[in-house]
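## retry 2 of 3
previous attempt timed out at serialization; input unchanged, resubmitting
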Amino acid sequence: MIRCPTCGNDVVYSPVPSLYFCLEQMLGENITISVECKPWILEDAPAADLLKMTERIEKLAVELRL
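## retry succeeded, writing output
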């Protein structure tokens, strides 16, 4: 079980492998991310997951023209 390192909550969301957000609530497909807790990456995250995350961020930056 993965828990939020800030509050200990076990209701977390991972939109990208190894990147997690703490949730205040999850009702069906609707989620509310806790703004009190920071997103985190698992300490033992596989390199392949980190590369996928980097690729997704690069694609998003191009779409946002950053």
